[in-house]
């Protein structure tokens, strides 16, 4: 299948390109970026690009929209332009997007394959309701992706309340999103919109989708901070459950491997348990798709643990590629 | 009054010396360190020492214990040797200590002057029960000190539950307590014993002491992490209260100034409210004794906020000096 | 004397304001910034401003130029706008500037009071040649300032050649001049224009000015790099001299104190010798005006040493304030 | 050939093990470490070890020396114990060592295959003079390795003088060799013994070995500093040459590929030219064996450039493995 990557020169876009190099199902044919970059070779704009893509000529968004001759689209454009672009594209092709523009639409799933694969069927509502041939599938915000993977095996114990403090890496702010002077030797406990996203997206992802949508009954509270780490978001989690012992939780983390049978090309065991999870040591685990959980202990009203994962892979491009693989395996594309 | 500083060459010891330079009530006469340092000039061991102390000859602990000719002692020795040393000294002089050796003794207060000044009267139990002329007053662990200062104005709203994730500075680990290779570009979510201390010391500090001790009724859960910041611990706090609006909480933080009238030499307003508290920007506030609170918001089951403060001053030596000043003002020394 | 600070909200501008707080000779009356900031209180724009200036209303550059009612001006504007602004102001008042716009004009001194105070008389050429009542005095680029202070005591040994590799702090790049992603865990050996400045400014500063200008006869080569340090530029220097022993050089560094007698308000001993100079430990020495020299050793063709100093104080605003003090003491203003 | 790695749990030892995983010529059979580690599984001591070695039981040095049943040895032990150990082993097997114990022996080469492969024949002197069946081949100190690779293509222009300022990564100091408190937000211009090593080892490596040894005629001066970077030493180099234009030098860097024909398993192009070499971006180039050169410019008395390379691979274990491959290809083992 022929794929396009939109926003291919940004932080997440580059990660898409890197992850799709040599992909067995999806062949990147088109790299889309701003007017300013259009016409240049990708290797000129992104020196560390894989050889395979270095000579590819970058296409402007307007040119691409005129004739989007591909079978699926990965979108790493900013949210501000993504809303319309994705709708226009979804008329004809499936769009797997990291942008938040449509995440909160009722008929658009925020998909994490290991967590809520059944939400993929929401795309049928899109096709029916909007008359599209394609559809939009979003992945969650980076810290939500990492959090929900760690929460998935705990659902069986009845989640009641989650409180999470994040320590997020600087690459989450994009190339020039964060001044060195701001974060050097510092912690910045403010990331615009992040706490709202974690609280709302995780509840949307973890609700059940049966005949109708069953809203999540648990509460989520988040405090988001930025720390001087290159890649890898770390999250300190306090959780209240209806039942479950520490041994059962540990076992649930260690045995969590829900999509093994689907044999998706990028799939890796989603969780590894390790006593002291650390972003620098563990962010590349499972090619960046595995989150590391540890420090699980009983706490005053439940349990506490720490999870760390790669914000650009598990938390962005890698999750989106996995979404496309799931969609293909299940026959949606 | 003539003071001694024990462990004067360590991280906390140096902070004691710096804070006591030119102190109007306490005059440092004796600097105590290991046998290895004994006999050397303090300025030789600590190049950045205040001029006033550079020529002072360092005394070994054993020599000092033989004849502790001072009126009070500040202790920055490690816990492992402090237990016995403090007991021996307290037979004759008041000891204000940063070590944890006696923190959990029933008759020893963990004192934070702005939070539980009335606990100071526990020293009477020591004098009676142990037959001492002096006494031991401890200050809490660094992250507990910062946390409890922020909790103090919230007591009036009925604290039910506290969950705190700390992001602690590397100076908290001592001079060579942490390898550069371990913390560079990393977050380490394990600080031995720290979570237990936060959970237990904060409940001891915040209990009421009336005719008898009224145990704290709220719960505390902590996850402690180390981040690549020089000084300044940052804490993300989720709190459940019995009552209170966000405006009332904000007002309580902003007006908290309990010991103003006592006119203690080192006293500074203990809390400043600021939208985005950050360790590098705010750690020196109030000469390191003021904690900065911010990001106060309603949360699923209560409120959330962030507090940051100087771990070596508010969290160690500065708190201890304030303890001694309170003890003097109230006539205990 | 009534002073204005131009570019008062930038990195260097803030340093000017901080250093001029309570200055015995110069009273800051006017803070000038961009149109966007005009009309706001300075404390609103710069939260950490000294109390003295918090309520001062910021003036726009165009308003200020219409009626520059002060006795001297400190300029921290970018070079791009400084050229014309400084010329216009110098018609009436003395301008002490950190901008490079006029540094290379023949009749404008690049002044470092401890190094080339006699260059100040160049301002007479300005007054004659340009018909100005005021004049322009520049301070050098930050790394040049630090380097030339360390070279000054070595002139007596006949400097032949200097090679310097700098390791410059991130605050030298301004508030948002450097992305966190670029410098985190990295060294960037490119700072636009910096090497040229070091090579040329240091030779202009260290030439002799007798009846006529005697060009410097030595050569200077520089490699400039950025390192993940907040403040404090560190420079590794290889120097060839005509004569001199290591003991004589050491003595020259240690006894260098040329302006002591002038009793300038901000003057500090310009050099302290210390075995291992380090930016984090020594940048605040002498309120940021003292550079620390160390590691002096013989080398294949001469000597090598390391110097570190505060880039915003010694290397920018502090040097400029010292320039104004010298000008006043010598009767130029 | 069966290989042993001595000091297998240290920083350099782990790098040896990682690089030898799946090596086509050398099969690691024995991992040697301290008595404390002996008897444990390697995976227990080094969690990130390759699967292939996780179950291998670590052997103590004394046990290994009793019966060193391998065909070659890679040594990553500290210099203090290496002297005798290497001599004893070399009686029977070839030793490729990162330790400096024998680097300065007349009959022991400091070998960098791309730079001085002909020095390998010195081992014949060892066999003759010492009566050994094996021999000792050392690789240089990490910063020397990186420097000499960059100097090799410049030899044809007649090197006269080299001055180098290094900015070295923290992993060069070993696991706990450097306290976080020392290097955080800092540059430390002192690495014990490093400057001497650079100055002397580079001259030994770059001398010619014809009928007899022709001492290097050029001079080398070094200033070594530590910077807060994980891996990758960066070096600012000033060089004087007898002849050569900047274009010729650039061409010499770009075409340098001396051992291509030997087809050594680990061989990578030793130099890539790139405008702004940076440790975080380029340290993994060529699996860590390629150094990146850039910023080449004319300078007052010659040229200046910057080189960066991986200190643990190019500068230690990787260089040593390449040494062994060269020795095998040339029939010495």
Automatic annotation (TrEMBL), chains A, B, C, D:
- Sorted alphabetically, which keywords does the UniProt record give? NADP, Oxidoreductase
| Classification lineage | Archaea, Methanobacteriati, Methanobacteriota, Thermococci, Thermococcales
Name the Gene3D superfamilies on file. Dihydrodipicolinate Reductase, domain 2, NAD(P)-binding Rossmann-like Domain
Name of the protein in its database record:
Aspartate-semialdehyde dehydrogenase
- Provide the active-site residues from the annotation: 142 (acyl-thioester intermediate), 233 (proton acceptor)
According to the entry, every stretch annotated as the Semialdehyde dehydrogenase NAD-binding domain falls at 2-123
Class of the enzyme per the UniProt entry, highest EC level: oxidoreductase
Q: Per the UniProt record, which EC number(s) apply here? A: 1.2.1.11
Q: Which family does it belong to?
A: Belongs to the aspartate-semialdehyde dehydrogenase family.
Q: Known InterPro entries for this protein?
A: ASADH-related (IPR051823), Asp_semi-ald_DH_pep-lack (IPR005676), NAD(P)-bd_dom_sf (IPR036291), Semialdehyde_DH_NAD-bd (IPR000534), Semialdhyde_DH_dimer_dom (IPR012280)
Give any GO molecular function from the UniProt entry. Answer: NADP binding
GO BP term, pick one? methionine biosynthetic process
- Which SMART domains does the record associate with it? Semialdhyde_dh
